[in-house]
């Protein structure tokens, strides 16, 4: 009788071992994160954002990434932008794979004031979130908060201003003005309208830069010269005795029917001895 009991217990132990060996081993799901956000600007009509996603597979077997769905919340700039990126690629065990997609954030140019307000912000705050969809595993979410830079209209600046004595009472002044494209892409300028004022009086008014194409980071320079003397600029002699020549350059830069105003003030120290 004792032998039968012992055999039965041994049989049960063997069944228990077999059951434990057959139990599936649970493995962690892939880890997904937004590794980097970086801009890819190419026009004044939108900002482009490249999103790089890193996927780590901790499992003992490859996992197949089917696609990535995402949404980018740009708040009041362009609302929520959604999309799906097809992938269909395997990620090997204990390896990190990368996937990248580009999101275009369009600007509404129908309202010029609102458009200029967006450019004036210089950056668009945003939230990127979505999920990587794996075959047999399901969806793994990701999220990241960041910002993307806005483009800018070309800038018209006073690069340098010089003055030299002209005769006994006159002054010869020269202004070096620059039209600058600070973007990483080419911009074609409609026109620049500007006026030069000395001591609050308009000295010159001109148009420049009509149809000028500026490549990324390029500038075009304009030189404006004038002679200040009593017969052409009444009252200037007394003002020049202060030793300071006060000036102002103001106007507008036009690009694609959008205008930006500018005004630059300054003064030149005069050597009247």
Description:
The protein has 273 residues and is mainly beta. It has 3 helices and 16 strands. It has helices at residues 2-22, 112-121, 236-240; strands spanning 31-39, 46-57, 63-73, 80-91, 95-106, 123-134, 138-149, 155-166, 170-180, 187-188, 191-198, 201-208, 213-214, 219-228, 244-255, 258-269. The protein has a 4-stranded antiparallel beta sheet. A hairpin with a 6-residue loop joins strand 3 and strand 4. The longest helix is centred in the N-terminal third of the chain and has 21 residues, at 2-22. The radius of gyration is 34 Å and the shape is rod-shaped. The chain starts with a helix and ends with a strand. The model is unreliable at 1-19 (pLDDT under 50).
Give a quick set of tags describing it.
4-stranded antiparallel beta sheet; single chain; 273 residues; 3 helices
């Amino acid at each position: 009788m004792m032998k039968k009991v012992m055999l039965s217990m041994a049989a049960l132990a063997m069944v228990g071992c077999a059951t434990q060996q057959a139990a599936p081993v649970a493995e962690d799901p892939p880890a997904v994160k937004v590794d980097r956000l970086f801009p890819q600007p190419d026009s004044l009509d939108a900002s482009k954002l490249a999103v790089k996603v890193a996927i780590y597979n901790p499992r003992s077997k490859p996992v197949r990434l089917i696609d990535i769905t995402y949404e980018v919340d740009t708040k009041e700039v362009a609302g929520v932008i959604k999309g799906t990126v097809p992938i269909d690629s395997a990620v090997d065990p204990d390896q990190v794979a990368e996937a990248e997609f580009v999101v275009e954030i369009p600007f509404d140019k129908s309202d010029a004031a609102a458009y200029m307000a967006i450019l004036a912000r210089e950056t668009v705050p945003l939230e990127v979130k979505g999920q990587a969809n794996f075959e047999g595993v399901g969806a793994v979410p990701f999220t990241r908060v960041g910002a993307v830079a806005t483009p800018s209209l070309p800038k018209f600046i006073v690069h340098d201003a010089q003055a030299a004595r002209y005769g006994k009472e006159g002054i010869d002044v020269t202004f070096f003005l620059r039209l600058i494209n600070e973007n990483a892409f080419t911009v074609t300028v409609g026109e620049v309208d500007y006026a030069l004022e000395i001591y609050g009086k308009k000295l010159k008014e001109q148009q420049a830069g009509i149809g000028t194409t500026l490549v990324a980071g390029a500038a075009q320079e304009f030189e404006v010269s004038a002679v200040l003397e009593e017969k052409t600029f009444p009252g200037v002699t007394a003002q020049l005795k202060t030793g300071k020549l006060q000036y102002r350059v103001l106007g507008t830069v036009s690009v694609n029917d959008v205008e930006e105003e500018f005004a630059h003030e300054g003064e030149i120290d005069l050597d009247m001895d």
